[in-house]
Design goal:
The chain is an alpha/beta fold and 214 residues long. 46% of the residues lie in helices and 14% in strands. The chain folds into two domains: 31 residues, no CATH class; 171 residues, Carbonic anhydrase (Beta-carbonic Anhydrase, Chain A, 3-Layer(aba) Sandwich), CATH 3.40.1050. The protein is globular. The structure holds cobalt (II) ion. The site of cobalt (II) ion (CO) has 7 residues, from helix 5.
Length: 214
């Protein structure tokens, strides 16, 4: 109970501090939100979206799950993408993974972890698909971190393959999907340079909206 009271006290101080700097801040935000960014990141407590990119409440829409996965049958993530693209009209979707991700590590091990094995299945599949290349790397840590990067790349594609994103592009909406990775060791983000911003950026087999027929 003592620790929880600390959190509530922290909250009061935080609210006071913000209102001191900008008295209308909460009043303004209570009316509407218009973030330009959707963040899809890992639930890991060490990777808090707003803090590491220095954004205030109202500036970034956030979805987090274990290992920052974008699974097309996950209504939660898909609803977040749909809402942020169609209603909020975000301009950037950032998939942010992190080195040392426990979810990715679990998928590298031949150990059952229970229910979460189902959630992490796609990473295990990604590992299997890239095993030859990954096995060439020196250490277990290198393999783990490389798989963290490959996972971000795959999730960026998964976002771009969604119907919502492709429809937005076809309608001329300004929307880019980015892949970033965060280092727990120095708190720095690395842009993987894999931006996708039109159906032409996708492999043909994944294009859901064909060229307009005359
Ligand atoms: Co993680």
């Amino acid at each position: 109970m003592h620790k929880l009271q600390t959190l509530l006290d922290n909250n009061t101080k935080w609210s006071d501090k913000i209102r001191e700097q900008d008295p209308a801040f909460f009043e303004r935000l209570s009316k509407a939100q218009s973030p330009e960014y959707l963040w899809i990141g890992c639930s890991d407590s060490r990777v808090p979206a707003n803090q590491i990119v220095g954004l205030l409440p109202g500036e970034i829409f956030v979805h987090r799950n274990i290992a920052n996965l974008v699974v097309h049958t996950d209504f939660n993530c898909m609803s977040v993408i749909e809402f942020s693209v169609k209603v909020l009209k975000v301009k950037h979707i950032i998939v942010c993974g992190h080195y040392g991700c426990g979810g990715v590590k679990a998928a590298l091990e031949n150990t059952s972890h229970g229910l979460i094995d189902n959630w992490l299945y796609s990473i295990r599949s990604l590992y299997s698909h890239n095993k030859k290349k990954l096995d060439l790397l020196e250490s277990e840590e290198d393999r783990h971190n490389r798989l963290c990067e490959l996972n971000v790349r795959q999730q960026v594609r998964n976002v771009a393959h969604s119907h919502v994103v492709q429809e937005a592009w076809t309608q001329g909406q300004d929307l880019t999907v980015h892949g970033w990775i965060y280092s727990l060791r120095d708190g720095l983000l690395n842009d993987l340079g894999i931006d996708l911003h039109s159906p032409e950026d996708l492999a043909e087999a994944f294009r859901l909206v064909g060229d307009q027929v005359e």
